[in-house]
Specification:
Layout (H helix, E strand, L loop, with lengths): L6 E5 L10 E11 L4 E7 L3 E6 L2 E5 L3 H14 L6 E7 L4 H6 L5 E8 L2 H10 L11 E5 L2 H10 L4 E7 L13 H7 L3 E16 L2 E4 H4 L6 H8 L4 E8 L7 E8 L19 H6 L5 H7 L1
Parallel strand pairs: 6-7, 6-9, 7-8, 9-10
Antiparallel strand pairs: 1-2, 2-3, 3-4, 4-5, 10-11, 10-13, 12-13
Amino acid sequence: MTLASTTIKWKERSDNLGLSVVLDVEVLYREKSDFQTIEILNHDRFGRLLSLDGYIQACQADEFIYHEMAVHVPLLGKKRSDTSVLIVGGGDGGILREVLVHDFVKSVTMVEIDKKVIEVSNKFLGIQGNYNDPRVSLIIQDASEFVWSAKKNHLLYDVIILDLTEPVGPSASVFTLGFVENISKLITPNGIIIDSDSVFVAGDHGYFLQEESSDGENLFSVVRKTKILPNIEIFRTHVPFFPGADFMFFLYGFGETTYKKPFSNYAGRHYNPAIHEAAFALPAWQQNWLY
């Protein structure tokens, strides 16, 4: 429901982390959907923010950084034609917006469990994911159920982008070995899966937000341990409103293709070819921890 304008101190959820963002905001909207608590917050300097179950998912000030890096590095790191894309999650619309930039993308299937997130994001955030593009098929369904059904029906995608919340709400069902096994069957032989997580350093090594906010492992830890998808490449960016601000992306695949060099000179607001290549340069502590 839409709320009256009153400035409050809003604190982001910080399960097991001991680190949290506190913002002076107006709460423009708050509602408990069938799956999660959805909030739209407004900050004088940073614009509107989407929060799901107490975690910031998107901020108008910096959403383009995350969305451009999540999309353009995997799409431009390997030349393809007639590319099929599966988006898992992504209800704010930013991933969809960036995927549709490229004419070589022939089809986009987006699976989002909570239709309310799409409706609220469209109304308040203006991120402009075009659900009316003829290439787009929007499916409102639990991702685990969709992936199981897609495997059964032998559906394949060139690029799969996982745009997931922390594993405390409806996303919890995908942070499992079974989900990794099933979704690994949905990529073409030279296909790729993109996953991501906030990281921060404390003491002598790093930590993942998704693992700190739950009792289990994130998908990267599962993939690395099981080698279900044996080829892993890692790149990073800086997203100010994500915990720790240091944000990692993980590319999983079967082939040995590298995505470190773009085939195009495309540039967005944040992404460009130089940023693409530089993103794969990890500091020593991350190399020692992640590889």
